[in-house]
């Protein structure tokens, strides 16, 4: 079992979305292990495609990017523990602040010889997840501006429903009013940003210095705004070879609790991927896989480490047959949206749940050029291969 990541596509996706974002800078969201693609390679491809920032969820992800050699701007989307503020300053990582208390706790932890730490003031405009109220924002901005060890690097919010034009207008109006008050007080607000993939596709770019691009970078539509550029495509496939192919008589129960019973002489293939790898138990019944140019149904309950497929109608299935759980084969394709619909969830979750046991194989020009073995974060390039870099 493995994940194939198409680095040429990832780079091209970033390039196409950067054109839509201009004149705003592109900040590629590579949190959650790069939406399952691998944080380091997702970052490299995004930068090769024109991203000027990389956005992560926590300090550990920021540290991985610095360890990988990325020298550019990093923004941590959620507050970090004040005790690691000094480390963030020394690694030149911008952090989020949502209250005067958070700003003061960070200042206390910074040493006199630490570099100035860039902080982005998050404004609560309707997501109800984090940030300071618009009424209190100027007080926090003033406290940040008066501190010598931190500086206001940005003011931002997150759109709760970019597909809802009135709600989005209310959020952006609140953000604009905060920025106006901060500016009128003689404080530079830094980079103003509110847009993720949905906001960008909704065409709301004017007045924003940065677009935080997540799902669209990986070739999937967020469900808001215009269509993706035609060149933007999913950049990931999930594949496996069967560990067992068995013929079973009618009446045979398959999987836990026997929820699927063969109605005829059937051929069942077992694939070594399950919910421990992020392939949810709710994927069956209802999902299919591609093998030998045809679709085959997943049957029985998905187990921790395996799932079973009915390949009775498909000729030529052998131990070396390649099964595609997500991705395209020939003229057929199974997308993360297809799988999400069966699971009753969203494509973000389908991608971000992909586990560390799945080896990442990086493909360029149709050939594997690098490997990230299971349960590691280190990428090994094939001899003579030039990977995207910073």
Gist of the model:
With 390 residues, this protein is of the alpha/beta class. It is built from eleven helices and 22 strands.
Structure keywords:
seven-stranded mixed sheet; elongated; 27% helix; alpha/beta; Lyase, Ornithine Decarboxylase, Chain A, domain 1; 390 residues; TIM Barrel; 11 helices; eight-stranded parallel sheet
Overview of this protein structure:
- The protein has 390 residues and is of the alpha/beta class.
- The chain folds into 2 domains: 7-218, Alpha-Beta Barrel (TIM Barrel); 236-381, Lyase, Ornithine Decarboxylase, Chain A, domain 1 (Beta Barrel).
- It contains 11 helices and 22 strands.
- The protein has helices at 7-21, 31-35, 39-48, 59-67, 85-90, 100-109, 137-146, 165-184, 197-201, 336-343, 347-352; strands at residues 2-6, 25-29, 53-56, 73-76, 95-97, 117-122, 150-156, 191-195, 210-213, 236-240, 244-248, 253-254, 260-261, 266-271, 288-291, 294-299, 307-310, 323-329, 332-334, 359-364, 367-372, 380-381.
- The strands form 4 sheets. Strands 4-3-2-9-8-7-6-5 form an 8-stranded parallel sheet. A 7-stranded mixed sheet has the order 19-18-10-1-20-21-22.
- Strand 15 and strand 16 form a beta hairpin.
- The longest helix is centred in the middle third of the chain and has 20 residues, at 165-184.
- It is elongated and about 80 Å long.
- The mean pLDDT is 97.
């Amino acid at each position: 079992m493995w994940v194939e990541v198409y680095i040429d596509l990832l780079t091209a996706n970033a390039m196409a979305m950067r054109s839509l974002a201009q004149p705003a800078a592109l900040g590629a969201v590579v949190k959650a292990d790069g939406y399952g693609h691998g944080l380091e390679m997702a970052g490299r491809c995004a930068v090769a495609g024109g991203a000027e920032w990389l956005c992560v969820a926590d300090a550990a992800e920021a540290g991985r990017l610095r360890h990988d050699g990325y020298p550019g701007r990093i923004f941590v989307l959620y507050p970090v523990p004040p005790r690691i503020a000094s480390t963030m300053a020394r690694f030149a990582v911008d952090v989020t602040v949502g209250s005067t208390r958070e700003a003061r706790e960070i200042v206390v932890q910074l040493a006199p010889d630490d570099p100035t730490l860039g902080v982005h003031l998050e404004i609560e405009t309707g997501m109800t997840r984090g940030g300071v109220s618009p009424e209190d924002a100027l007080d926090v901005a003033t406290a940040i501006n008066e501190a010598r060890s931190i500086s206001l690097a940005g003011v931002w919010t997150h759109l709760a429903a970019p597909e809802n034009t009135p709600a989005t207008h209310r959020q952006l109006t609140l953000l604009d009013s905060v920025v106006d008050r901060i500016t009128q007080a003689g404080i530079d607000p830094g980079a103003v940003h509110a847009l993720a993939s949905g906001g960008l596709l909704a065409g709301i770019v004017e007045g924003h210095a940065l677009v935080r691009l997540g799902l669209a970078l990986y070739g999937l539509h967020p469900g808001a705004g215009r269509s993706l550029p035609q060149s933007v495509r999913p950049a990931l496939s999930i594949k496996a070879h069967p560990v067992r192919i068995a013929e079973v008589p009618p009446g045979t129960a398959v999987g836990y609790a026997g929820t699927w019973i063969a109605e005829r002489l059937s051929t069942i293939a077992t694939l070594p991927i399950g919910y421990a790898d992020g392939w949810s138990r709710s994927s069956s019944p209802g999902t299919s896989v591609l093998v030998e140019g045809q679709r085959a149904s997943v049957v029985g309950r998905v187990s921790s480490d395996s799932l079973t497929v009915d390949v009775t109608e498909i000729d030529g299935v052998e131990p070396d047959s390649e099964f595609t759980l997500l991705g395209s084969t020939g003229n057929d394709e199974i997308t993360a949206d297809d799988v999400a619909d069966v699971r009753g969830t969203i494509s973000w979750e389908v991608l971000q749940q992909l586990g560390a046991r799945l080896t990442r194989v990086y493909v360029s020009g149709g050939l594997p050029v690098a490997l990230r073995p299971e349960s590691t974060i280190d990428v090994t390039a094939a001899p003579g291969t030039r990977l995207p870099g910073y």
